Amino acid sequence: MEPISSHPLYKAHTIDSAMNSLWEFYTRKFITLFLVSFAMGLIIQYLSSMIRIDIGDYQSLNIDEVMLKIREFMWPMIIVSVLSLVFTTILHSYVIFNPLESENNIFRCILKSFRYLIPYLLIMIMLAIAGSFALFLGLLVVVIGALFAGIYIMTLYLFILPIMMVEGPNIANTIVRTMKLAHRDFWSNIGWTAVFVIIILVVTMIMSGLILLPFTGSFFSAVKNPEAATEVLNFTTSPLYIILSAALNGLTMPLLPIFACILYFNGRAREDQKFTIVTDDKVRVEDLYAKPLPEEEENS
């Protein structure tokens, strides 16, 4: 297998080159990434459609009866969560290993991904606990604190699988390296993640609105009329709705592992080349742009 430095996403990025690399890799590997994500969407959307919690059924129950009914959906929710982790691991495995060796097709990458599932699951449990605490602290300073805590947790999450797959599935090392790389060029990592999350949210909202059109007649009428919007829930078990939702997942889900690898390889490239960024305590617009390497300054 080729060294990790030969990976097409391995380089010191700016936010512009990061987005360009994201789009180029996404279009180059689109078919495989889309099919895996589409299959993930079909399975998870189908299972999720079976978890129907009607609030009206709970209004006449006491708290103990409500908890008993909610526990009926516990295992379906756990299965959906575990399957999401499995498919996420597969996508990361393909994004990292396929460009390094042509023999690493999607099937070999699926087999490779099994090595990282248990450590990844354990780290995600720890991250969920720490993240809940961080969000609680963020809520103490109202909206801005909660938003910052959410972006910070997302940034940490993005580093986890690339580090595990490149540097080995050692839980302790993964946690240490995640904290180290995420906090190096801290404001750049936070800023890039915020930009990425905003883009995904906007695209998802627009495409979700288009998916609702066959069922509401008009996305805007569903927004203006709350009754029409609630009726959309009746179509969540429709085969057409499940297929369209899976297609949306197939289009957007591959962006996550690609961007995660860009963040990791950017930090790794700068670390390998012994590049350090001097920052001050103030956040500036320039902090969203990674500074050039010494070699780049000489060439310019």
Report on this structure.
The protein has one domain. Helix content is 74%, strand content 0%. The chain contains 13 helices and no strands. Helix 4 packs across helix 12, helix 6 crosses helix 7 and helix 8 packs antiparallel against helix 11.
**What is the number of beta strands?**
0
How much helix, percentage-wise, in residues?
over 70%
Classify the beta-strand content into a percent band. under 5%
Query: Which sheet architecture does the biggest sheet show?
Result: none
Principal-axis shape:
globular
Catalogue the unreliable spans: 275-281
Structural class: mainly alpha
What radius of gyration results from the CA coordinates?
A: 21 Å
N-to-C SSE string, H for helix and E for strand: HHHHHHHHHHHHH
| Integer average pLDDT | 79
Kindly give the count of domains: 1
H/I helix tally: 13
Distance between the amino and carboxyl termini? 34 Å
Search tags:
300 residues
Secondary structure: elements and pairs:
Blueprint: H1 15-28, H2 30-49, H3 63-71, H4 74-97, H5 106-140, H6 142-167, H7 171-183, H8 186-216, H9 219-224, H10 226-231, H11 239-252, H12 255-272, H13 294-299
Helix pairs in contact: 1-12, 2-4, 2-11, 4-5, 4-6, 4-12, 5-6, 6-7, 6-8, 6-12, 8-11
Brief sketch in words of this structure:
This protein is mainly alpha-helical. It is 74% helix and 0% strand.
